[in-house]
Amino acid sequence: MRLSTRGRYGVKAMFDLALNSSDEPVSIKSIAERQGLSEAYLEQLMAGLRKAGLVKSVRGAQGGYVLSDSPDKITVGDIIRSLEGSMAPVDCVIEDEETNCEKAEYCVTRLVWERIRDSINQVVDSITLQDMIEDYKRLHQRKAKNED
Amino acid sequence: MRLSTRGRYGVKAMFDLALNSSDEPVSIKSIAERQGLSEAYLEQLMAGLRKAGLVKSVRGAQGGYVLSDSPDKITVGDIIRSLEGSMAPVDCVIEDEETNCEKAEYCVTRLVWERIRDSINQVVDSITLQDMIEDYKRLHQRKAKNED
DNA sequence: TTTAAAACCGAGTAATTTACTCGGCTTTCT
DNA sequence: AGAAAGCCGAGTAAATTACTCGGTTTTAAA
Asked: Would you place residue B103 in the very low, low, confident or very high pLDDT band (cuts 50, 70, 90)?
């Protein structure tokens, strides 16, 4: 049940974008540097995020990426699902996909998988980039205090 | 974030065991038949469940497996974790494993992973084999009604 | 006491997935 | 014109998954 690097790096990158956003777009290079990711790989992920409509790209020199919406409107769930697909723990409970299992209606384990899926969706959809920014500020404040 | 077949088959097998348990042990062969699983593969999984202490084995002819505890004491979480390991979405938040990431204390994404992990644990630990048996009975009752 | 039914065990393996890299093309600012 | 960026498709080594197989040991029953 591990997330792949796509989801992990994707969340990191989007957080970085949220934290470092201004009116100028942010380049893959700078995100990759700050977050310690491979540029070429991150490029793939950004393509996915763009196709999902979570970021907008600006081509050409001085180009880069910007969030499509404000940080409090983008959730961790949006990010992970756009890069990894459904959070369903098994294929037969992927949302909006009719299952080809004819026993589905009377399947007990199916109920279990649905509950797991729903609970994961609930957490990831409840965490926005804004929440992460606030956590970040809190942690840094405390860090500064500790280092006195 | 899919479960592997180990976890899926494991839950199925344990449910089967709970449902078909009497004073006689239940053989791998019969579980595999009812659940449509490969005998040889299921054998591996049962070994894992035995090592985790969830089932006890009876060797020799007429042997098989029995639950180590009553169905209301065994959770889906126990089963999945014993076959797949921690439900942590990333390695750095596996329970009882100190992380080698020195930024851990100030890591924002880490907080996200912890929340996901905790929420998954909470659901899977809240579902017992007894719950599944009751779901099964409910579904079958309704099925019988529908088929009138 | 033989036989057969079962669990136990370790090793091997094909297929799939993951986590990338690479090279070239296009766009656009300076 | 040149450089800095994004865009795109293909390729690949390593890891993981989902198994299988062959043999050993144990034990109930005929």
From this structure: confident
**Closest protein CA to C1' of nucleotide D2, residue:** A61
Q: Kindly state the tokens that stand for B135.
A: 């779901």
| Nearest-CB residue to B112 (from A116, A120, A127) | A127
Quick: pLDDT tens for A46-87: 999 999 999 999 999 999 999 999 999 999 999 999 999 999
Domain boundaries, chain A: 5-146
- To test the contact with chain B by mutation, choose from A8, A9, A110, A112 the residue with the greatest count of B C-beta atoms within 10 A, namely A112
Structure tokens, A40: 């070429």
Contact present, B75 and B7 (Cβ < 8 Å): no
Q: Please report residues of A whose CB lies closer than 8 A to that of B147.
A: none
Angle at B131 between CA B130 and CA B136, to 5 degrees: 95
CATH number of B5-146: 1.10.10.10
Is pLDDT of B145 > 70? no
CA–CA dist B108, A14 (Å, integer): 12
Task: Give the nucleotide nearest to B40 (CA→C1').
Answer: D20
**Cα three-residue angle B145-A110-A102, rounded to 5 degrees:** 60
